[in-house]
Amino acid sequence: MQCTWWTLPGLAVCLAGPVRAQGVDPGLTRVAGIRVGHHTLDTRPTGCTVVLLDEPAVAGVDVRGAAPGTHEIALLRPGNTVERVDAIFLSGGSAFGLATATGVVRYLEEHHRGYVTGAGRVPIVPGAIIFDLGVGDDPTVRPDASCGYAAAMAASPDPVERGSVGVGAGATVGKLLGMDRAMKGGVGSASIALPNGLVVAALVVVNAVGDVIDPETGRVVAGARGADGIRLVDVRRILRAGTDRTAARALQQTTLAVVATNASLTRAQMTRVAQVAHDGYARAISPAHTPYDGDAIFGLATGTFDGAADLLTIGALAADVVADAILDAVRSARGLPGLPAVAELAPAGH
Known about the structure:
21% helix; ten-stranded mixed beta sheet
């Protein structure tokens, strides 16, 4: 049994309950059978990230943002024929980045993976993109099929690499006052395991219009900056005051997540988990699910846990790890010219 230890005078008490990974949280790869790979382009801050499954997993999806860019989403609807997927990709490059899927499919075909048909195996690879074309000097540089193939090749069960890598290389946050007041976003990951062996984990790329908020304190961690370039202005106050602001530009944002569990769930149940996991966005991003964000969450159930699947618990933990992963993303990011990261703005010792 895993324990969280509380020490009182003369007494050590073991509280059996949800345990976040100590030390380096492996993140999404804490769910056995999941590998994660990134590929970051050299010529502009952009890239792609692939979640590769050792065995096909039941999948669901929930899209809440009003400006989504997605691939193979329709097949994830409950009631459709193909229940399991072989991989999920997340890519920069806006609609151009959807070409990433072709490279992942090619990798899987070479490894004899995919849905069995009379004409051979067809890899099932849903995915989504973020808009990062305005970051860097050359918007014609964007992820393509070669990026997807390289990320799939790099996929590993090791702890997930975080920050300004893969799809998070060009991610930004706090854009409600314009890009000149924004900060660096990135990729984050987090996990929770219960004493009975149930695991719920998330990987998130944070590229939001809004600020990133620490749910435990209510404070802004990363977001729109003041004219001094250092102070965080807190867009919640700006919105409530009706202050003039630069309108966020459509199709230039989006926070994407992959939530996974080792439980055995149906597609309808996994879709419900993805829906509940969006609570993590609402806790850690303000505002979230705006008309300018393409926010979406994919859900995966590997089915390697042989215990009972408590949907309420799984959904609640999914929201927790999504919020944790959002904070992890901005805290792990590295800054770019004009786009500082949290670590650069935080005072020494903070």
